[in-house]
């Protein structure tokens, strides 16, 4: 039997570019197309940042001489981030925990499963964040 496989394992401190998939109180969730389990937690965003409950997006409150400007992290925008941590979770299959497990419990457990590999990113440095923030127009 012959087969090929591709391994995705970025280095810590590597800079990647992805797209914002969603935003929540937990942070900004990023996709790079073939890999979606990337999160940028609130403490790793450009500061000061706040979560806009109405629009469900994070906002960087950028201070200038003319006052504060709200820079929104909209879904679908391209974002440059640094990989600061990674988490591997053993997802080896296990047998049923008890004979009394019902199908509703099984579906709840399936929804709670963690991703086997998760990256944690940061945009708390100059040049990181939405690409549109740093373009010279």
TrEMBL record:
Top-rank taxon: Eukaryota
Pfam family membership, one: RNA_pol_Rbc25
Entry keyword set: DNA-directed RNA polymerase, Nucleus, Transcription
Ranges where the RNA polymerase III subunit Rpc25 domain occurs: 14-134
GO cellular component: RNA polymerase III complex
Entry's family note: Belongs to the eukaryotic RPB7/RPC8 RNA polymerase subunit family.
Entry function: DNA-dependent RNA polymerase which catalyzes the transcription of DNA into RNA using the four ribonucleoside triphosphates as substrates.
Protein name: DNA-directed RNA polymerase subunit
Species name: Tricholaema leucomelas
Gene (UniProt): Polr3h
């Amino acid at each position: 039997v012959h087969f090929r496989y591709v391994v995705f394992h970025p280095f810590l401190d590597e800079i990647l570019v992805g797209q914002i998939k969603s935003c929540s109180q937990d942070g900004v969730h990023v996709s790079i197309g073939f890999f979606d389990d990337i999160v940028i937690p609130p403490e790793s965003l450009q500061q000061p940042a706040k979560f806009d409950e109405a629009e469900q997006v994070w906002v960087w409150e950028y201070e200038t001489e003319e006052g504060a400007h709200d820079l929104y992290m909209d879904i679908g925008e391209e974002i440059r981030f640094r990989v600061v941590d990674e988490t591997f979770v053993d997802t080896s299959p296990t047998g049923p925990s008890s004979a009394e497990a019902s199908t509703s419990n099984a579906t709840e457990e399936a929804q709670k499963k963690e991703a086997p590999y998760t990256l944690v990113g940061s945009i708390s440095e100059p040049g990181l964040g939405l690409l549109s923030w740093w373009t010279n127009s």
